[in-house]
Amino acid sequence: MEEIERSAASVEEAVEAALSELGISEQEARIQILQEPRGGFLGLNSQPAIVKVRRVAPPASQEEDVEEQGEVALRFLEGLVDAVGLDADLDVASVEGVTYVDIWSSASSDDMALLIGKRGHTLDSLQELLKSHVQREMGERCHVQVDVEDYRKRRRSRLIQHARGAAARVKRSGKPETLEPMTSYERKLVHDTVAETDGLETMSEGEEPERRVVIRRVGR
Q: Could you tell me which of 138, 122, 119 has the C-alpha nearest to residue 84?
């Protein structure tokens, strides 16, 4: 099986299901969004997200695709920042294989704190807007992250350490461990981090925004 279509309540859940069934990572896949989810009035005429996922060798053009996404994301966020009147500098950067549009304060740090929000909730909402825009413009899954004064990069580092600690506990005790709810990007970090430890596997369960990663021994 080299190509499948899957549907779910969100694009992220549909992609996760397809990747799991194909037994591949996102880097080995070409992901096409066939339909965005839409909620209908009183539950009527709603539509699920539908994606097509095809197994491919990591393409030489992948970096070019992400670079193009970065430019689309940068233009979108520049327009958004201008529209709300924030005094900020934006640029595109790649750190540890992740492409970010970085937003930096050129005047008030209070503005940046508002843009991040409590526990990063405003930043997560901004990421959802960016993701939808890039996916609409390019018809591809968005691989670009928006970051404000390195908040997301610091969160990424802490999350990787947390996942490694949880993996070590599961490896030692044999007891599955369910982590706190996370965004799709954060869940992918956990999946990738735990995959470094032999004998363990991960799965996602629950519905957004309460979807969580479960770490367990293989075959449990």
A: 122
**Amino acid making up residue 180:** E
For residues 115 and 86, is the Cβ–Cβ distance under 8 A?
yes
CA distance 166 to 177: 7
- Look up the pTM and report it: 0.77
Those residues whose C-beta lies under 8 Å from the C-beta of residue 95, and which sit 6 or more positions away, are 153
- Output the CA torsion 47→43→208→140 (10° steps): 20
Contacts of 217 (CB under 8 A, 6+ apart): 170, 171, 174, 176, 199, 200, 201
Distance CA 206, CA 47 (A): 19
42 φψ region: left (φ > 0), alpha (ψ -120 to 50), beta (else): left
Amino acid at 16: E
* Cβ pair 70, 92 in contact under 8 A: yes
pLDDT in tens, 111-146: 899 899 998 999 999 999 999 899 889 888 888 999
